[in-house]
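Intended use. Records like the one below are meant for learning the mapping from a protein sequence to its folded structure. Do not use them to infer anything beyond what is encoded.
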Amino acid sequence: MAKKSLQTELGKKRPFESPEKEAMLNIARTSDRFQNRFGKLFREFGLTGSQHNVLRILRGEGKPMPCREITKRMIQVVPAMTGLLDRLEKDGYVTRTRCEKDGRVVYVDLTAKAKSVLELIDAPLSDLYRECLGHLTRAELVELSRLLEKARLSVQP
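Structure written out for the chain above:
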């Protein structure tokens, strides 16, 4: 794979104003490319990335979860979780049940349909992870994760 700098990719004539700006734009460009690929995969199964994320969280928990807890665990912030859950429920992927002790709490659970779709997505999703990052060594992946986690410290919610 030929190395191509972001400056070249963008057709930028002068160097970036700062290494921080170059790094941030590299993160944004890379994220956009990856999100497009993952979005395409999820669309093949009739889902969005956010919908898949909700289903993945629920499968990982293995039991119904309060809506508020799902929101906390999302990879990307979703401003309208209720709307997202409405769509998943309408499409038969989740069920919602109000807590008997506290009616403000709504529990969300996976349906058999959701579990089946997740099983179908698992292999192509693993393949896509490898396609996007499989050319990096294990040490490079560990370092990449470490650096991204360190960078995120400056923007804690």
